[in-house]
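Recap quiz, item 2
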Amino acid sequence: MKSHTEYLTFNTRHEHEYVHITPQVEKAVRQSGIQEGLALVSAMHITAGVYVNDNEEGLIEDIEAWLEKLAPKNPAYKHHQTGETNGDAHLKSMLVHHQVIVPVTAGRLDLGPWQRVFYAEFDGRRNKRVLIKVIGE
Amino acid sequence: MKSHTEYLTFNTRHEHEYVHITPQVEKAVRQSGIQEGLALVSAMHITAGVYVNDNEEGLIEDIEAWLEKLAPKNPAYKHHQTGETNGDAHLKSMLVHHQVIVPVTAGRLDLGPWQRVFYAEFDGRRNKRVLIKVIGE
Amino acid sequence: MKSHTEYLTFNTRHEHEYVHITPQVEKAVRQSGIQEGLALVSAMHITAGVYVNDNEEGLIEDIEAWLEKLAPKNPAYKHHQTGETNGDAHLKSMLVHHQVIVPVTAGRLDLGPWQRVFYAEFDGRRNKRVLIKVIGE
């Protein structure tokens, strides 16, 4: 079994941002030399997510509005008694999930025609990391 | 390390459908010959999901009603400016998540007594695929 | 490829409980002897979840209140026609997701500074299991 691990760092300009990272995942898989296996793409922070969906600007705006509706900013979160103000970002992270597995087949990402990997930032403007770990053969 | 990859194709009769696919996952694991490992079951489309829960008709109706409440059909989604009408299906897919990992132990799916694998279709009536990739030894 | 499988059993005092299980996952990884790989942590029941987020008491109360809002107790669930009363617990399990993959690097859990693994019980006060399966080398 081979394995290959990389860390991406993001420092987004906005508090919320949806960053298309399929190219970085492809590159990691290529560098791994792995032909058959699994690529884990996992946020290392608890106020960010990783998901697979469409790279379409309108949909991304819909996702942002939807997350704000289901996990809204709210000064009353108990988490804020610690001095934090990002309770909603934790809940958004849980809703989106913080990781995906991309299957690797014949040395390539085995994604459907419209599947793209996104890093979802909910508390940006500082360095945050995503781990990519490819295992296989 | 061994690996085995299969693709299932679904063309559901209804726009929304919840298809029990544990038998197909079991078959893929059997064909892989893998005794210890992980089986990834992952939708290849961005308007479908894969989840593990109960194979009980009432619960499936509850899930359908719940998803419609949290990620409703709505003509106003910005995604619809592309000509699409399935914005809600993308959000439902994100809520359910598009993949699960089924552990494989002693050559069998290592699921709890009531755990069953489901393909959740949110924009059906056309060919859509699910990937099963088993890795292990 | 090596693999190592463990089962944890929980019998929580309360119907809902959020149990910090990072130490148990660390121990399983140590016992596996695996240096590079993936650790699957997966609930074996359909009324429980496993997630990664902050070990902060206020946030855990926020998560509980948020799940109750998005997937409330409701006597009207169709699932209850079977005699069950835990329809909401199934939906909460789906929202949180029932599993995570923890990457293993240099023999340790490769988590970010605040990432902790939690078992989320939504229908407790009886024996329920979580599987940990580590694969790698």
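Residues 2-77+84-136 of chain A form a domain with the Jelly Rolls fold (CATH 2.60.120.460).
The mean pLDDT of chain A is 98.
End of item.
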